[in-house]
Amino acid sequence: MDNEVKISRIQVNLTQQQLAEKIGVTRQTISLIEKGKYNPSLKLCLDICYAVNKTLDEVFWIEKGGR
After folding, report:
1. In this structure, what DSSP letter does residue 67 have?
2. Do 30 and 5 contact (CB within 8 A), yes or no?
3. Would the CA dihedral through 40, 42, 44, 49 be positive or negative?
4. What is the DSSP string of 3-62?
5. pLDDT digits (tens, 9 = 90+) for 13-53
6. What is the model's pLDDT at position 39?
7. What is the C-alpha R_g of the chain?
8. pTM above 0.85, yes or no
9. Residue 44 CB contacts under 8 Å (≥ 6 apart), including other chains
10. Gap between the Cα atoms of 14 and 61, Å rounded
């Protein structure tokens, strides 16, 4: 799943470990999400968005037929 998690995380000066601790998952989970190798639940997507102060659309929206 393509996403903007890494860019959003860096913009708020969080490491993968810090973001993981903030939302209650492992650093490995964040790494897999950023690489597009793990499809997070809607709740996890929202937790990430709240942590980086962005909307769901800003972080996870994919245009139809895009990316």
Report:
1. -
2. yes
3. positive
4. --HHHHHHHTT--HHHHHHHHTS-HHHHHHHHHT-----HHHHHHHHHHHT--HHHHH--
5. 999 999 999 999 999 999 999 999 999 999 999 999 999 99
6. 93
7. 11
8. yes
9. 23, 25, 33
10. 21
Structure tokens belonging to residue 30: 């964040």
Burial of 13 (0-12, 13-18, 19+ CB in 10 A): exposed
Query: Two tokens at 34?
Result: 């950023």
The span from the CA of 21 to the CA of 56, in Å, is 20
Q: Specify the length of the chain in residues.
A: 67
Q: In the structure encoding, which two tokens stand for residue 41, read together?
A: 């639940």
C-alpha to C-alpha distance for 51 and 67, rounded to whole angstroms: 24
Closest CA to 52 of 26, 25, 15, 1: 15
51, amino acid identity: A
